[in-house]
Design a protein that fits this description.
InterPro entries: NIR_SIR_4Fe-4S, Nit/Sulf_reduc_fer-like_dom_sf
Strand order of the largest sheet: 1-2-4-3-11
Bound molecules: iron/sulfur cluster
Distance between the termini: 14 Å
Number of domains: 2
Shape: globular
Number of helices: 10
Structural class: alpha+beta
Protein name: Precorrin-3B synthase
Keywords: 4Fe-4S, Heme, Iron, Iron-sulfur, Metal-binding, Oxidoreductase
Helix content: 25-40%
Number of strands: 17
Length: about 375
């Protein structure tokens, strides 16, 4: 765990001195290659129609999956971004990226991708937060099925099915029968005390816990195990890039009955996948053991003006020659800002002004 992440979740940190500028569907980031729009799927849920709209807007560029399981579309014009958001608002469905009023979910709501039982609580949390402007974009809410997959993200608020609440990765002992109600109560408790803070660890878990103790029982933590249901396939787009062809095949598989879930570890899970799904995705995404499974990278040059080098091109060449893709996760970046560095133990491979790379190994929490 990095020094910042190692800080006790109960210890408050300094308040932020600048506004939250996380991009969304309507609030875009002005990047060197145009407007960047971000869409936060509810528990990863993405319909075929939404995927096709995103891919069409990206044109020949790949869609990007973020470390929170969001979709990013880069290189948009302002009008193109508005048109994309408007088109997504018309798609509908149980957990749309944007609802009919054009409202997106202001923060990330992630959920274990393999278990349908987490879908409803994730939807309930997202529906309650959708369109609100008092929720910081950096806030991360997770609904875990008991497998620990999204619990490992150390989200600001995590509820494990069975009702156990974690704040900033720390078990609280607080439980509730309704996981969505528990998660929402924790979010509201954080919003009530957050001031300018974006994350629970900035105000300290104790400040969030205090009002919850009055309304939810405190019991010993119990781990609830659930079994994956249906025919599962998990595929890995390299560096989270889903190109036009891959998006089309995934959308087709969705049309044929597969349920698509994108994950915070930049994969796509297909529940009830057709028998030939793996073969059809072969060559478009990684469908088996792959050196890319431990690799991530920032966007680098030429799409980021701050980058000292073409990070993704350099990384592809390193993988091709067997110089990257070991067991330790590695995150390649074009400058010292190290955007997108994942949680946990990781080697940060950083481009320098001289055109070389230096590697910094960051320790992390070891899961039991
Ligand atoms: S790490 Fe540096 S080069 Fe990479 S996206 Fe961030 S600012 Fe750009």
């Amino acid at each position: 765990m990095s020094a910042a992440r190692r800080r006790d979740a109960a210890a408050p940190a300094a308040a932020r001195d600048r506004p939250d500028a996380c991009p969304g569907a309507w609030r875009r980031h002005d990047a060197a290659d145009g407007a960047l729009a971000r869409f936060r799927p509810v528990g990863g849920a993405t319909s075929s129609a939404e995927l096709r709209l995103l891919a069409a807007a990206a044109d020949t560029a790949p869609l990007e999956l973020t470390s929170r399981g969001s979709w990013q579309v880069r290189g948009l014009s302002d009008q193109g971004a508005d048109d994309l958001a408007a088109a997504l608002s018309r798609v509908g469905g149980e957990a749309p990226l944007l609802d009919a009023r054009g409202r997106d979910v202001p923060c990330s709501v992630v959920a274990s991708p393999r278990t349908p039982a987490v879908d409803a609580p994730a939807r309930a949390v997202a529906d309650a937060l959708r369109g609100r402007d008092d929720v910081p974009g950096r806030l991360l809410v997770a609904i875990d099925d008991g497998s620990g997959d999204v619990l490992g993200l150390d989200a600001d608020v995590t509820v494990v099915l069975g009702g156990t609440l974690y704040l900033a990765g720390t078990p609280t002992g607080i439980t509730g029968d309704d996981p969505a109600a528990l998660a929402l109560a924790a979010v509201e408790a954080f919003l009530a005390v957050r001031g300018d803070a974006w994350r629970v660890r900035e105000v300290g878990a104790d400040a969030v816990l205090e009002p919850l103790r009055e309304h939810f029982p405190v019991r010993e933590h119990r781990k609830v195990l659930t079994s994956p249901e249906g025919k599962l396939l998990e595929v890995l787009p390299r560096l989270g890039e889903v190109d036009t062809l891959a998006a089309a095949v995934l959308a087709d598989l969705g049309d044929e009955g597969a349920t698509l879930r994108v994950t915070p570890w930049r994969t796509v899970v297909l529940r009830d996948a057709p028998a030939d799904a793996r073969a059809r995705l072969e060559g478009l995404v990684e469908t088996g053991p792959s050196p890319w499974s431990t690799l991530s990278a920032c966007v680098g040059a030429p799409r980021c003006a701050k980058s000292h080098t073409d990070v993704r091109g350099d990384l592809a060449r390193a993988v091709a020659t067997g110089r990257a893709g070991g067991l330790l996760p590695a995150h390649w970046v074009g400058c010292a800002r190290a955007c997108g560095t994942p949680a946990g133990p990781v080697a940060v491979v950083e481009g320098t002004p001289g055109g070389t790379y230096r590697t910094i190994v960051r320790a992390g929490k070891v899961s039991p």
